[in-house]
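Thought: the user wants the 3D structure for the chain below. I'll pass the sequence to the structure tool as-is, report back what it returns, then summarize two notable features.
Action: structure_tool
Action Input:
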Amino acid sequence: MAPPLPPVPAAWPSLASHRAWLGEHTRRLLAFGAAAALPDGGAAYLDETGKPDPSLGVQTWITCRTVHSYALGHLLGIPGSAAVADAALAGLVGPLHDDEHGGWFHAIAADGTPDRASGKSAYDHAFVMLAGASATITGRPGGEELLARATQTYLDRFWDDPVGRPIDTWDASFTTADPYRGLNATMHSVEAMLTVADAVDPAEASAWRERAARAASFVVELARGNGGRLPEHFGPDWAPDLELNADRPGDQFKPYGATPGHGLEWARLLLHLEAAHDGAASGDWLGTAVTLFDRAVEDGWAADGADGFVYTTGWSGEPVVRTRMHWVVAEAIGASAALFERTGESRFADRYAAWWDYAERHLIDHEHGSWHHELDPANRPAATVWPGKPDVYHALQATLIPRLPLAPTLPAALRAGLLRDGSGR
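Observation:
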């Protein structure tokens, strides 16, 4: 008789050897993205090989995500990270800030002209708050001042307190608000507000967590009413506009239909929110996270017969834009790790391992570095929606979320020494 098989190995998120692999991938990502730091301040949009693409100017959201990512790198003890974070931060306190009307421009064009046509968006300003909070937690010079300015601007211009969600966009002078409301800006506002809460005085922190909870409660309602497919676009009264951009469904920031990647991202954020409130949920945050996760996987994963998540689906779950985006897999990894952390259910660990396998096979660029940001339906590199490799934010966080608790937020957890690394800790 053959000897009995040894026990099944521990799930990947629990393996010290896997955590060591994640640590090495973290370092490779940060090495790739370091070229984004610009000598005059801000962060460049990177091309496929990791070189700055000057034709795309300096964009606020990329600059903010660079501050955040390299603040995390500095907290990890990776040399050179602080210099990248500081260079990006200099862009936020310098040319990207609108000294006349307040707030931040969407971008500075290649010729140095501020982008006034795009107006001032909650999406950009949420990322400015995230950058300020991460820089503050990390102790970067100017971080506290940036955070104070960013949070005040957000509260004065974007946070609609009676509704409990943000106004999406103003014109450049903060004179006229666009009637559009969006769930993407709301999602990144929740992410930012949780990080702000970890960066400010405890007397202020509870108010930021409560704002995040109010915004998230809307998602709980939406998930319940739409079978886990989240409407993304709304009118000024927050009535869903389900047909917005049906004529251009692959829009970078306002795609038509449901976006499985956002369902996954919301699933993870709801668990961070629950943990930040010590489990005292004001709604069914865990149940909603599972609903959003399961719907995203059912609708999005291999929906057309090939591995990978489709970008968008219709309201019955059928694929619309079949392009595969790297950020969706990164968020799938993060959500599955968070759900495994919260529930211990093996099905989430199994998905986690399968999606890292997919990333290794198709997304991680072993020649030039980082991840291909977009693949076609046959999993070949493409550039129809996202040319180049703008930044490392999503992929980087996918390497950290499995090694950190659900609360506090990533920079605060790293500062507190809570990283579970390859030594088995």
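Final Answer: Structure generated. The chain has two domains: 31-178, 183-384+391-425. Strands lie at 58-59, 107-108, 120-121, 159-160, 165-166, 169-170, 181-182, 233-234, 324-325, 374-375.
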